[in-house]
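Lab notebook, bench 4. The sequencing result for the construct came back, and we need a structural model before the next group meeting so we can plan mutations. Quick request posted to the team channel:

Model the 3D structure of this chain.
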Amino acid sequence: MWRDDRELSHELASTGTSARQQMAADSMPSAAFAADLRRRLVSQIPPVADAPRRWSFADAFRGRRLAPILAGALLSVAVGAAAGAALIATRPQPSEPAKTPAPIVVGVPGGEVLATASPTPSPTPTPTATPTPTPTATPTPSPTPTPTATPTPSPKPTPVPTPVPTPVPTPVPTPTFTVMSLGATGCGGGVVLEWSAVGDPAFKKYVTLRSASASIPAAYPPQGGAVELTATRTGDRNATSAPDTSATPGTTFFYRTLALNSSGGVIGASAVQAASTTAVQPLGSLGAVAVDATKTKFTWATYAGSAACFTYYKLVYSETNPTPSYPNGDPYWAAISDKGVSSYVVDGIVSGTTYYVRLQAVRATALGPFVIAETDVLAYTAP
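Done. Here's the predicted structure in token form:
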């Protein structure tokens, strides 16, 4: 196959250009050659006399002035020639015209020429379309993280000794206790105290506190100026009343009853109540009339005070005690619960015997009775 004419022309043009550039470079005089030529020309100039001499234009054409001028001219011509050759070598050379291939003769040996045909040139290759480059997608830049500010180092604190805390006493919780009721009734001779029973299994005893102030803490032993009434202390769960016979008549006192456990802890408490007492009420003289040899009728004035203070009458006597009294343990002939009764007949009086007799109105409580009213003592000798 024939080579492509275009390729062949291109190679020939490239080869010619390279050769011309090489020839121009080889023909250019070197700097050393120019320097040597100038040196030799200058050495032929005769020395100048000591006294300067003016010369004319005609002297230039004489030998002593002409040699240097000619040398400079020759040097200029040589340099110009070299530069021209170099310029010509750098010019682009025209491409050689494409050669028409010789015709091909087709025939048979010893025969005539059958046909003359031009050789079929090699088909010029159709240039392949250069694909349009797909632009490379520019990656979305990741956001540059905001730099974390470097904290300024704090100075190391000077250790301060930890103060030792002052121990705080653990508060004692207010105990939960049963709420009790309390009644305080002022009578002649004392105050009647009555409270409700406590069913707590931890029950040990009841006590009642008294104070001249209405502020009585629900605590035991008593606090805040309160005192315990010993006559009111009992370990009987069902004994729920007691007298206060030590109160000064005409003075108001405040009371509070507590229920305690075995360790003295409060398990029940009443509200504070107030009451005042009066002196024992006098009932006047006691009368006595003999009914027969063995019977005597005694009479008295009835008790006119509050029914809340009255429990019964006691007709007490003593053969030895001139001031008989039921609370003190002297015997009695009669116990009468009706406070409206004003007489009683005693059977069994021993004739000739002297008796000290008195009628007393009594208020009984679970923890003992006390006298609220009474008659004078009668010394009676039976007929």
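Residues 102-125 have pLDDT under 50 and may be disordered.
Will bring this to the meeting.
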